[in-house]
Amino acid sequence: xxxxxxxxxxxxxxxxxxxxxxxxxxxxxxxxxxxxxxxxxxxxxxxxxxxxxxxxxxxxxxxxxxxxxxxxxxxxxxxxxxxxxxxxxxxxxxxxxxxxxxxxxxxxxxxxxxxxxxxxxxxxxxxxxxxxxxxxxxxxxxxxxxxxxxxxxxxxxxxxxxxxxxxxxxxxxxxxxxxxxxxxxxxxxxxxxxxxxxxxxxxxxxxxxxxxxxxxxxxxxxxxxxxxxxxxxxxxxxxxxxxxxxxxxxxxxxxxxxxxxxxxxxxxxxxxxxxxxxxxxxxxxxxxxxxxxxxxxxxxxxxxxxxxxxxxxxxxxxxxxxxxxxxxxxxxxxxxxxxxxxxxxxxxxxxxxxxxxxxxxxxxxxxxxxxxxxxxxxxxxxxxxxxxxxxx
Length: 392
Ligand SMILES: *Cc1c(COP(=O)(O)O)cnc(C)c1O
What we know:
Elements lengths: L2 H14 L9 E2 L5 E4 L2 E5 L12 H9 L19 H13 L4 E5 L2 H12 L4 E6 L4 H8 L4 E5 L4 H13 L4 E7 L11 H10 L3 E5 L14 H4 L8 E5 L9 E5 L1 H10 L1 H4 L6 H15 L2 H21 L9 E7 L1 H13 L2 E2 L1 E3 L9 E6 L6 H17 L4
Pyridoxal-5'-phosphate binds next to α4.
């Protein structure tokens, strides 16, 4: 059999179980209304939670970058790719996360695979929430550490696995969790995780990808919002979601960051971010810090949207701006998403392997600048479709 024949067979199988995927051409994808197939569609699927991706001040800041000097860095961070603006940004991020130091990465995926594979050794145990992002899972897979996956947010299970790891005689233990879970919109029980971390002498890494910018009085993230940021050993997050730009960071005590500089392959063996991205992130941090009004309105709209759909009878997960309605069957979920699109609403279907089999869902996300009347109209249409399709 040729490779092409074999791939075609595999693709046919994926299609037959409702797992076809395609790249759609979308314009204005970060705005409250995107353009798709020439139609204006209400955008309920972007991670641009605060609307910063199209914020005039960030765009202006990027324009003001001395682009004539260089379009790219043409060097990795440890060779020639570290400059004053990058150093300033890393200070700013450390300050934002209330830590000693921070380190900039190309993106969140690379940050996670690099950080976990750099830290974890064969004699270590890593305890990872079952629903952690693929980039965390992949980072762990690159190591020979003892891998314990605990049931989602299940503290009894985490404790049982911590005991098991201790019995195995591992040298060090590391717990890793998202703060706001990207596909469930719920928040990790960080108080309890920290209690267990201390009880079993483990370290804790949190990925605040969906909490950064959205939680905390200055958008510092979920751990800060809960007053727990000093209990976390390493903070991870991305600048591609609420911050609206691109890139990612790790922040924590000097020893952690310094060790990453020495060993983290996804930092060492890749070219530094282009100057205009660094400038864009830096402005985004300022705007996030001053964005309390955006956080308030985002929370109000999210609460309204979630509670109305809940009342309508949908199976809603979470408590944040990530608002998934679980439909279950892969094909029905895809049909639901298509029907939404017919009504000019973008609600992307999330299917396995991103979520467990039988838990396919429409993952709605809100943005601060989606007009109130559109939030209300969307609730009406989603409810109508839910009834029509026997989902509620
Ligand atoms: C999106 C996401 C990432 C990846 O970040 P990028 O900067 O988009 O590569 C990592 N972790 C979590 C939890 C995420 O949701």
